[in-house]
Amino acid sequence: MIESISVSLAKKIQRSYPPASVEIMAYEIARKINFWAIIVLTVLVSWRVGDMWGSILSMCSFALVRYWSGGKHFNLTLCTIVSVALFVITPLIPITQILILLIGAVTLLVFFFKTNSHRRIYSCVFIVIAASIDSSILILTFCAQAILLLWREDNTNEKNS
Fold first, then answer.
1. What residue intervals traverse the membrane (predicted)?
2. How far apart are CA 92 and CA 55, in angstroms?
3. What are phi and psi of 71, to 5 degrees?
4. What is the pTM assigned to this prediction?
5. Burial annotation 95-134 (CB, 10 A radius, 16+ → b, else e)
6. What pLDDT score does 157 carry?
7. Three-class secondary structure of residue 17 per DSSP
8. Vertex 19: Cα angle to 13 and 20 (nearest 5)
């Protein structure tokens, strides 16, 4: 859906500025629609569900750790749906301190082995901080990112973004 809207907008822009590439414009428009859709939908849905600040924490922490680690990419429409679901659901899942430490340890191992060496330290520090402050929201968000690291197509230690 995001892709078709962006192509339509790009074609309208190209009529006004013919040298522009529809594919490049459509891609950039789609990225911006995706970005804003995730933010707006996360805030609206989480406000309605009841934990807007937890969802905002999840969204911001995911963006931060994603920057340092990379991971699997979905098409933009699926990305919006999965991201909003992740950011809204993670604050609603209560987990015990021992489970936070266990999930944190497994997540730390995934990040250690699946991120490249010069970015590994930042990702691992985020996980250690999250576990040390007993943040179930952060640990579950980082765990979801670890799953995306395991799922990416290239099995190298290079950043995939």
1. 33-50, 95-113, 125-151
2. 9
3. 140, 180
4. 0.76
5. eeeeebeebbeebbebbeebbeeebbeebbebbeebbeee
6. 44
7. coil
8. 45
